[in-house]
Structures are given as C-alpha cells and as structure tokens.
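Human:
I keep going back and forth on a fold encoding question. Comparing notes only helps if you start from a blank page. Show me how you would write down a chain together with its backbone fold. Write it directly below this note and I will take it from there.

Assistant:
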Amino acid sequence: MTDISAFAEEDFDPKAWVNTLTSQRQQSNGSSAEEPVDKFLAEMEMRLQLAAEEIEAGLHESSAQALRRLPFAVQEIYRLQVRTAPCSDAGLRCSTAFHYIYTTRWCQCDG
C-alpha cells in the first residue's frame, strides 16, 4: 500500500506526489517499465479510493460509537453536578425535579 501520510501535510502538492510515485516506479523497474504508466496510475487511483473508503468507514464507526456513548456521558455529567452541588434544600429540589423530568422524557421517548 502506498503511504498516504503526505496528504495530511499543509503544503501537499498532488502533482508532485504523483510524479514522485511515477519516477520511483520507473527507477525500481529499470529504464523500461514492464507495465504501462496508464495501468500503474489506474491501480494507484483504485488504491487511493480503497484507502479513502477505509478511512470513511473508520470515521463512521468512531462517530457512531461517540453518539452511542453521548447519553451516558450527559447522564454522568448531571450526576456529578448533583453530587458536587451544595446540599441546600433548593438545590435538592431542583435536582430531584430535573431527574424526574429527565427520566419521564427518557421513558416517553423509548415508548
């Protein structure tokens, strides 16, 4: 697989990248290349498309995991806020009311 880390550089030049790959191919195969340049470039394009699809699938999976964890993280934040809030009567009433409303809405959304 071709190293695609060059794409992350801020001053990435696609023409120079393709030219470098082509010249490396010609140097490794000697002066006369066994396969035509068009075939080599088509293969490189296919490899880049496959790499892009793998990256996209990884990003999709990571974002799906983050979205699945989000409700639990929010619930934990609220739990910590209640735990660290001063134990005043008004604070206790507000937190109790919030949890009742939050739980009620959660149950209504679930069916």
About this structure: The CA atoms of residues 80 and 86 lie 12 Å apart. The two ends are 49 Å apart (CA to CA). Confidence is low (pLDDT under 50) at residues 105-111. The chain has one domain: 5-110.
